[in-house]
Fold each of these.
Amino acid sequence: MSSSPSEYVTLLSGDGFEFVIPRSAACVSGTIRRMLDTSNNFSEAISGRCVLEDLSGIVLEKVCEYLCYNEKNKDQNVVPDMEIPPELCLELLMAADYLDSTLLFSCIPCQKALAYKDE
Amino acid sequence: MAMRARHKIRAPRKALDDFDTSWSTLAASLREIHTKNASSLSFEELYRNAYKLVISSRGNDLYECVKDLEREWLENVVRVRLAASVSPSLLLDRTPADTLDQSNNERRAAGERILAAIKEAWEDHQLCMGMITDVLMYMDRVICADHHKPSIYVASMCLFRDCVLRAPMRPDSDVSLLDVLKSAVLFMINLERTGHIIDRQLIRRCIYMLEGLYETATEEESAKLYLTVFQPMFIETSRDFYRAEGERLLQLADAATFCRSASSRIAEEGERCRFTLSPLSERGIQGVIDTELIEKRIADVIGLAENGVKHMLDHDRVGDLANVYVLVARIDKTKTTLTLAVQRRITELGDEINATAKTFSHPTPTPKLNESHGPGKKKGDDKDKPVNQQTVAAVKWVDDILNLKRRIDDIWKRAFESDQGMQTSITNSFSEFINSNARSSEYLSLFFDENLKKGLKGKTDSEVDALLENGITLLRYVKDKDLFETYYKKHLSRRLLMKRSVSMDAERQMISKMKMEVGNQFTQRLEAMFKDMAVSDDLSASYRDYVYRMGDQDPKRVELEISVLTSTMWPMEIMSSKDGTAQLPCLYPKEIETVKQSFEKFYLNKHSGRKLSWQPSMGTADIRAVFRRSDGKIARHELNVSTYAMIILLLFNDVPIGESLSFEEIRTRTLIPDHDLIRNLQSLAVAPKTRVLRKDPTSKDVKPTDQFFYNQDFQSMFTKVRIGVVSSAGNKIETQSERKETEKKMNDERGGSIEAAIVRVMKQRKKLVHSQLITEVLTQLASRFVPDVNMIKKRIESLIDREYLERISDSDPPAYGYVA
């Protein structure tokens, strides 16, 4: 680790996929932000790699897509909806909870998630 | 939790794996965090563990377990470590005492050690709890919301408070670490107050801790440990310290030092609160200084006989006074103590000035027989002195007051921040002592007279302006402005008639200044006097034309310059003879008489129905005199003499050389009143430098039996000789009898003003209660003088007698009605 942390961080899914996204985008998630906090100095902060054991590659991909989407549109009023396949909704909800990212919550159509669960 | 199939997703199974396994890994990691090995831990793993425990409804258990873990850590590790660094010296003596330096140093070192240890423990705890909170974020989110519990961070802070700071350090004593901390900090503050240098940063850190801890888990502002535990003690010890300090300073130091120390203490404590302790205490500690050092002592300090405020005022110690002012302003918005001291001093100084003026000007009962005309002119014989001295005293009085005023104003501006209240009381004291001098109006008018006569020579416009402005400032203080007006009129008339004024511009400036200050009514008559003078100039000119046109080209003809005065506007009494009897017209020589008659004819032609009365006592004449000296030389001099003197001298034109006129002869041939005759003869025959006449016998007094000769041997180094006779030509202080005269006149005039005011008020109101009438009259007249209430009552009586007013019967309170 150099003195100034790298601009990009790597997120790893439980099944071994790696996603490299901007640090600022990643830190929208409270969990990831704390994980990377240099003053706490956990191993993730040192390596810049966050292994998110509980998330599958597919979900993490969607999460990363959201994080980048959020980063890109954060200062705009009118933004296009993000496309979320219904079958991913429930798992994404859980991921959002886990990642402490309330914004992500708001993007997920909950009825769809619940409907899918009932099926 | 990976996905099993695309189309079928089940809710994640509750992880029912035993709580204990997860907890034990978690607990081990938390311990690692405490021992600062976090870098080897994966946040994600810890987080996931905690997450799962919470997800599986074990959050509450987790919370309690973490708390237990923390308590155990704090009690068994942190407290033990801290207890070890407390040296026995800190436990023995808990009150800061001024013992030997040796033990002080020891104690201080021990104190610093324990403070450093506490600080480190605290900062570690904070850091670790921050990390742990982050890891347990999910738990906090769920537990705090669901169970209304304080977050784990807050809970652990409470644990630190109870298990480390508040717990007894040794089983055998109940001294807690908090007590040690407090006494160590207070001890160091005491050291700093007595001039030592301490580690402020260290103390600040420990104070941060007290500010960061609360009595309750809800963390109200007022429940900060700093406020509940430390501040009261801090204030308490500070109070003791400053009580002693105040006593010490009062005994050892002078007032200036006291105020300087107090000011620097205030600054010092402010700085201490900002950099060493907490800004929260600033108000409290300033309050302590305010009461202990200022409120209880300042009156003594201000009153200190040899170096209190009096001394500062006397020696222009602006800096010191500013200190006192700032201190007093802290405790008292109205600054009563300081104001009173300043007022007292001003009145004292003013009384001194009054007293000097009084001793200077003992009214001399001897008749002023021979005087030179200006107070500044030192020629003339000894008899002038007392009167001149009085005038000098008058001018000096004004100068002194102006100096005092300037000094006080300067102090007021620079030391008292131009404080409004102070100004009012300063003004009051000035006005008080100025009015306590019964002659203030006269003195002030004399001051103007002096300056307008000669003081303004060679001064620039702005200087003149400043000088007049100063005088006007004093006029503001004078209550009896009508009295001032009388004197000013008298003095002005002399200046105008004798052409003694240096600059008419300055005179006009003065009038306009007075107009602004006192009002139109006040200057009306003064302005009329100026107008008369201007009209007279024109009149003289047109009379010259008239004479020229008449074709009367007599080369010997006497030129006439005339001042026609409106008798109501001018103070005629100073022109008439002393005893007030009507003046008999004197006999003019025929050259003069013809001119007089010709002018009367000219004037009455222009303005029929007017009456001219001649005032020879106010005039002057230029005559050319030829002296045939005994050594054969012929000397010519131009003599500037009074009208009377001119008449006397012209008599000698008809007297053969070597012959004389007796006093009686002169009197019968001129009919000049005795009083004026004696004066004029004195200045012609007795005054050393202007002896145009010779008197036999040569004595200082003029007696009816004396003989007078034309002095052919008159010598003077100047061609033009001014023979300054002129009765009371110089404006000088009045004698006792003159004063009585003036006062009597003043009272009459006031009576008139009061009656006029009463009538004005009643005409408007028709009916008015007695007390109200009095008040209204007082306000109406306030700008001119302060009337005596008894006088007003008398005037009301007199108006009732003359049926201007009537008493309204059966009215309570008594009232009056206006009779139209």
Note: The first strand of chain B starts at residue 620 and ends at 628.
Amino acid sequence: MALTGLDIYKLLPKTNCKACGFATCLAFAMALAQKKTSLDKCPTVSEEAKTALESASQPPIKLVTIGTGDNRLEIGNETVMYRHEQKFYHPTVIGILVEDSLGAKELDARLNKIKALSFERVGIAIKPELVCIKNSSGNIDRFVEAVTKAISITGRAIALESKDPAAIEAALKASKDKRPLIIHEGASDIGPFAKIAKDNSLPLAITCSDIDEAAAMTDKAKKAGVEEIILNFKGDNISGKVQEFTYARRAALKKNFRPLGYPVMAFTAQNDEGLELCEAVSYVAKYAGIVIVKNVEKDLILPLLVTRQDIYTDPQKPVQVEPKIYEIGKVGPNSPVIVTTNFSITYFTVAGEIEASKVPTYLICTDADGMSVLTAWAAEKFTAEKITQMLNDSGIGSMVKHKNIIIPGYVSVLSGKLEEVSGWKVIVGPREASGIPVFLRNLK
Amino acid sequence: MAIELIKEKYTGPINTVEIGAGQGMVKLGGETALPFLFREGDMPNKPLIALEVQDCEPSDWADPVRDAFGDAVKDPVKWAKKCVSEFGAKILCVRLQSAHPDFGNGSIDASVERLKAIAKEVKVPLIVIGCGDDDKDNELLPKASQAMKGSNCLFGIATQANYKTLTATCLADGHSIIADSPIDVNIAKQLNILMADMGFDQKRIVMHPTTTSLGYGMEYVYSIMERARLAAFIGDASLAMPFILFVGQETWKVKEAKEFGEKQGINWEIATAAAMVQAGADIQVLRHPRSAVSITKYIDKLMER
């Protein structure tokens, strides 16, 4: 939690010695609060003040990184309890559990399924980013083999979970350069795991049942020299975990309570498929930095990834597409022209329906600051003037032989003005995008 | 030493609304904290799931949902009975679609008769929704309301442009009302106040904050609900209503639910409903019986303290 200038001033010597280059200690404190200078300019600051200021300058929830290169994942460093207060910054990492007790064939099949889980939605590539290999077999060789295979087959970032520190050490020989997450399996002593994490500068997830245990364990891990820690809450009580996540986040954000100032994670515990999806959705909505699921079927993973995408959308900045002419299908001089806004969901929905209609069409997205049609119309971002300007600037007039423009049914009220200002003939389209295929096919 | 929990203390509980009369009567709302934070407040009534039926064959419904009910969708009474006896629905939402000009433009009396037949055969509380055409609904809903007098139904949907007829008739026949608020806390407040001005008890209003599907703006609704809830908790009585969401209707419209097999459609509905439960939904109207079963199990799990 950031300190104000006055908070910092109270910690300074208040001698106004000017050694820092500022006229007074207060002026120096104000500059510190704005991060325009650094504390080492003060020759007489006390150790106590240094510690307090250093802790205050750290983010309340530590940023943790897993993986390298294209697989580099960041979680933590969150600042709010509710998305509407600002936004959630680092999307929940979705991981898939792989147990090394699987037979060789099943293991390969599962890893290949994971590899295939990769989608594109509203122009953004989404996938489960993490594969968590669990040493369920208790056998070190099998663990190392599963880890090696997971890396070579899926190419995703990995997490290593075991009760046995020796198994983790062995697996690290094959995976250390991938910056895996080490997951301490519950009930075993955190000490040896902390040592491995420290020696290899790797992130460590500590497994605990509640925030009291979490705080005690992070303290221990921190003292052992581990920097990047994640709190893994165990148990099968869904609302119990939602509460632990909530109170850990509140303690970090509102009290800057360091022992809980880390991202949180959970494994799903429910076996029923529908329940597992519900459970995972709950954790994505309520603050989890990582959720590790058991199911690898596309029809469950996709809705989970889209939930994550929705919750982590910046509420102040709708996802936009570039305002321009989009050619859908093999367009020609007689192709119809549809106009809409550049809100990405609007664009992808309309473009999808045009594709489904199989009628080649020019789709013009105007610059409406990424608002949907009705919102943009209400905010005067989607007006006759703006559409006319887009018609002129885009050069659509020289691409088609007609002067007919189709507008969304919700803004039929724009028709008269638009015809007058643009000189184009307005055709009112359907209100919902789902009506586009029928509409286009019946268009003369 | 146990860490002291940072608990939020609120002053304004959410209203409790009862639906139905007699044995099957259900209660909505009553929360004094955000969902499932049992250590700082209560959730006296668990969130509910209703299944949706229509008074005519649902010609525009996605195939996986229609198929789940088989031939029963051709007969509203059979359909309603199947929801209750086979899929365990504790509450039904009857949409009087047949009167809509685009859906056959059926007679109002016939629609009301079908509603009466359903009410006679199934003994669960009913949510009754008009066909969506304002002119038709202003004729249809008062008759439906009179026919259901004494059954304490939840009627909808009152909108800012069309709330007077429905409000007056529900006031006379003792029903509760769903008030619409298109993703806007201020419209929600205003409509709730307008209805209160007509003498309608605010504590009989259930708020519909708009429903959107996963992947199509679900997060807007999620945040609107959180904001409205927090405002109600600190004392804004004009937002202290339970939330209803029509998740089935919205999710089964989208491509990802309709076109990639039944399972993905069901999961689309489940994921949307689960997120809405976390945002504070008090009752959700679903379409696929398997989604309803999953979400009901999920809510039961969440209520374990």
Note: DSSP finds eleven helices and ten strands in chain B.
Amino acid sequence: MTDKISSDVFKRLVDLASLELPEGEGEYLRKELNNQMVSIEVLESIPIDAETGTAAHGVPYTEMNSPVPREDVSRQDPHREDILKQAPELEDGYIVVPDISHEELY
Amino acid sequence: MKTYYLPAYAIADLIKSRQISAVEVLEETLERVRSVDGRAGQVDVSNAQSKEDLNSVHAFTQLADEHARGQAEKIDQMVKAGENPGPLAGVPYTAKDIFTVKGIPATAGSKILSNYIAPYTATVIERMAEAGAMMIGKVNLDEFTYGSSSESSALKPVPRNPWDTSRVTGGSSGGSAAAVAAGEGAISLGTDTGGSIRQPAAFCGTVGLKPTYGRVSRYGLIAFGSSLDCPGPLTRNVMDAALVLQAIAGEDPRDNTAAVVPVPDYLAELEKDIHGLRIGLSEEFFRVTYFDAKTGELKENPIDNEIKDAILSVAGYLAQLGADIVVDVPLPHTKYGIPTYFVISRVEASSNLLRYDGVKYGYRTDQPFADLRELYRKTRGAAFGVEPKLRMLMGIYLSAAQFDKGYYQRALKARALIRSDFETIFDPKGKYRLDALLTPTTPSTAFPIGGVYGDSVLMQYSDQLTVTTNHAGIPGLTVPVGFDKEGLPIGAQFLGPDYSEGLLLRLGRAFEKVTENEDWRDRRPPLLPAND
């Protein structure tokens, strides 16, 4: 059986996921993904047509059970200092973001 | 009797009647943890190796003893002052390390969050505190909840099943189930995305409740599959589960998927008669699909006879109590549960995992990097385990425009069909008019540690009897119903229509009462002294 996820496709996925894989991990991951595709392909056999609806949630959200949206107002977060403390690199209360490379977009 | 194995409701009664203090309960529980749990989970250390390691539970990732002591003292002061300390006064509980608690690490079982200190508290944790419960610590789980055995956690040693420490606890709320079974807290809060409360609860012989999606707020829960995740309790008895749900259910302005639906009095529901209730059995839940790695094929088998017999025995008891048992209930789309889950959960997981980047919080690579992209790659490559990587890669593959073959749309349609199966059988004007469905919770009892881990397809299929519930959004309750010949617990699952938790708890309680004098009810995990 041909692998759904070829080595080239896998390489592209790894790049999109921003992952540098340790030596030897790639082959294991690609094998598992292709095994998972065997299960996913079962969906091809479901009798569905254009009339079959989609469900983004199991339980439908209606006017009766949906909360009223919050007012769209800005406010100072009470945890500002605690949040900033988590950043690996800070400067004058700002999170330092390393240089962003310029590369050809796909 | 030591308090660490008492029900939560009994502990709260003892404290409120001043027979014991919350501080005393806490210290007893902490002593219990010290005596059975062994090393707490940590990153960059070895998995269980020594004899002591192999015989310990390893439920915890960290104790929060100071935090709990503060709560215990507050409860004792309230009791002394004649104030009502709440329905869960002084009850020790643990929280799966996927919930945030301000000032306490929240690791999600991952190296990438191993240094993260939560700056805010989850709604369910706040509500447990308002009810008087004391959070004694955080417990281990599959990394980001991705798994069904808790073996994928980056925090080692991973949890071991208290009934047989060579077996898995199940997952992803494996630390929760193990802690409750081993007397390390009367309650644990877990989450259920494809079965992650119910499957480990069944494997460890505890009660586990997955509420209706939206019944309980997800605020402060580190997300996996945002349309599927449900926080809920694991307990040693049904009444405790009802007490916890009563405390945590209800709308929340900080989560707009927390439904605006009144919360009923679950305790009042518990002791009601089950006479005349229509309980269904479905053949679809008595066979299992599994992945044969040698042939690369999916195969189907009947479920293990011991488990089937245990479920039929539960049906027999319910019939004795006056319930009507309806057989051959069709749920034809059950077999699509796992394939649908492979698509929806991976797409949602990959979206949720993109936020971890080594810039804002969490782990950052200690290797040199030239720019932001390299920082991302090195940080994420080193700090995510194989399960998050698999889920990201699959999620991107299934949803990326250049690879998409309509998988996601097809899965959403399959989800609608699975939901429709349940709507049909629970329709009060339909052919079946069921109040609940009775099924096995798991296709097997707890499997050996290392027996399945590494085979991501076979592992996923261990959720096949729980996952359709998550697709449909409906509630599910698992209760322990006995043991197999190897002494491992078996769980039975009750499923019902949206917001029918009260009815499911009532059924669980009815079964508990009718079997309360049976010998198997006296069994304790071998970690527990026989006379405790």
Note: The first strand of chain A starts at residue 90 and ends at 91.
Amino acid sequence: MANKNKMFFALAAGILYVLFGCMQIVEQFGIKTGLAELLLIPGDIFGGLCLVVIGAVFLYGAKELNSGMNMGVSYVYVGILMSLVFMAVYVLIIGASLLEVYLIQNEDYLEWRIIDDIRPGLYLGFLSLAGYVAWRGRFSLPAAK
Amino acid sequence: MTQNKITIALAGNPNVGKSTLFNAITGAHQHVGNWAGVTVEKKIGTRTYHDTEIEVVDLPGTYSLTAYSVDEIVARDYVVEDKPDVVVQIVDATNLERNLYLTTQLMELGSRLVIALNMWDVAESRGDKIDTTKMEEFLEIPVVKTIGNKGEGIDGLLDEVLREAGKGAHHEHEVSYGNEIESKIIELERILVNDDALSARYPLRWLAIKLLDGDENILEKIKVSPMATQIDNVLNTIDREDCEASMADKRYEAINTVLPQVCERCVKEVTFSDMIDHVVTNKYLGIPIFLSMMWAAFEVTFTFATPFMGMIDMFFGWLAGVVAENITTIWLGSLLGDGIVAGVGAVMIFLPNIMLLFLMLSLLEDCGYMARAAFIMDKLMYKIGLHGRSFIPLLMGFGCNVPAIMATRTIEDERDRLITILVNPFISCGARLPVYILLAGAFFGRDAGSVIFGLYMLGIIVAILSAKLIRGTLIKGKPAPFIMELPPYRIPTVKGSAIHMWEKGSLYVKKAGTIILAGVILVWLFSAIPSPGVDAAFASEEILGTGDSLMGALGHVIEPLVAPLGFDWRIAVALVFGFVAKEIVIGSMGVLYGVGKDEDALGDILVAGAMTPLSALGLMVFTLLYVPCIATIGVIKKETGSWKWTLFAAGYTTGLAWIAAFLIYQVGTYVGWGL
Amino acid sequence: MNETTLNLLEPGSKAKVIQVKGRGKARKRVLDMGMVPGAEIEVLRKAPFGDPIEFLVKGYRLSLRKTEAEHIMVQPHTE
């Protein structure tokens, strides 16, 4: 049953996104979990909330699939799309920093290393990328007009 | 060498790929303007094809040609009055039925039509089989298959357009409305033919149909006709409501007799589009998803704009340096450096933000999500007297009010749009934050965060209340109905979005730029002319921006006005400078209090007695509410097209700011908070 | 089943338009968009706050507020 795979995928992705999202929020409030350095977690309330939302979409999908609702797969697909969008956002942020370093040679960016801009939203995206590749046949939308 | 010149108009429903096809035909040879008298975008391009110069006019996207919106009136007036040689209707092959509805109306206008059957590849890939030969036969209109985003079928389309333009008289194939209505049409035609003015401009049958259709715009025109009473007599014999319904019905009926023969299994299935919709309109997740997508759009806009803004800043800094070095006449150097270069810089610095925001918006619009955003937020917006489409422009205001006001173009109804523009400046933009940070930090210490949050909330509350107030007084009535297509999701093309971004960017620079520049030079003049009695040269260093300039004198003049708010003349001057850009308030306070750019020192001076926490709070509220910056005023003028509304916006905001700061200071002092 | 107004139908239900009431521009727009007597429609879903509502009509998706849907008389199909 193909949907079973999707359910487990959604469950795993959902838990990860909610967890990392919460850690970003907690970090912003100055509560040290000790994991921030290791997992590159920034303190960022809104960014964290967005990750929680993505996670919630995945978990909702897992719940629907678990209760035998086939429309549950929609949530998994949308969750994947959203996490890919956020992955793209974080890639663009790195791009902006690179411009600061090499084009503008902004003094504030002298110490900048690529690792400073790597966020959970970026590396968790690889999970969704795998999901996208695995089920890419379903993501069929015509090109705009 | 070109010999002939023809004009063609592109018509079609929204979301059918009209702009893409327009770009594919005209390439870079286009310019954007406004239709006379209204703020509807008008795009004109040219293309030379087989010795013929073709002028292509892009009409606004419409579903119909009634008088429902300005767009529809603009489109039909153009077709009727300017009489383009050929009208090309772009038809979405995946939704023939509703698209052909517009075709029936274009046919009635008596225009020479060519249909571009766009996106037929999409229709075909999902299993539709459209027989264009049959379609041509039934509609008696040439049909050409096109794929706009791949540029396919453009030459075929232009061939057909030239052939059609070269034809003499053409047969008008029309919808038949049934005996009863047809007899009324003939009756009206017989009366209308006696009105020379109208019959010269409009096709008679079309006029008659529009009258029976209850078209407000045409009914208005008929009022001044010498035939008015006779026409009224005929119209009184019919049941208007019934007539309107049966006419729409007959048009769809006409389409439905054609459709089954033209299109084999034009189908509908549960598509990926439906799956996305199912999730993004989910009762619990819909709004959080929407807000996260907005956050993503903002994050990209503002982080990615920063390096480009840095580049522009460096360029103008360099330019100012060049000016300072090479121009030794002090006043000229200052006019060029502090006035014009700084002024143009102030305009250009927003450009990356504006272009990126519009790139994001265009991506969201093209993929189809924007319509869902309006769908999701409509109920909330309706409650405060606005339309679902008003939400995004208001949200964008948190970044910058300038692109936010430009983005109100997506709101169809003029009155909804006007209210959205007028309340937008209350949404606290990024430029106001430095003012809050300094003052709240200096006076409220640990509570600074709550104070700033409170200011943002105050802005939202004032915007909501103002919307309700304006809706109840100046612009009465309910928000426009929410009768909106939710187009299927599509993958946006980079090219389409990039073109949109470029258009908006250049529009901003061209139009708003002139007003902003004039304003900046005016403010510079005030700060460069010595105040009466001061012995110093025009635009000398001792004068510029200090209390000894005319601006300082002005500050003293308006001091009595702001004294009840607990402000002295220095703050008055700083607020006037803040009109250029709100973040300047802090900088000019620094100059006036003699601490220069040292913000910490400024904070210390203010706390040491120049201000009280109460007047600081008043100043923050005043900064939030009073007249928005020149750039915003510039786009308000441009987007409302009216000095009256622009002045209203300036006066209303400043009046409100004064009242709010007055209440805070006076009530606070009375209660004893100011101590 | 008896005639009812469109705003009262639940998502998933299908119906045939009998009559479009009301007057003026909004009504004409509704008719132009294909909500003509005889048209087959399906209620797809409601917005998160319960309003507006999304319909499938003439092969595309149209949304209306409840106040606009109130004016549309329909004959629900029983399934």
Note: The beta strands of chain B are 4-12, 30-34, 41-49, 52-58, 86-92, 113-118, 129-130, 143-146, 263-264, 484-485.
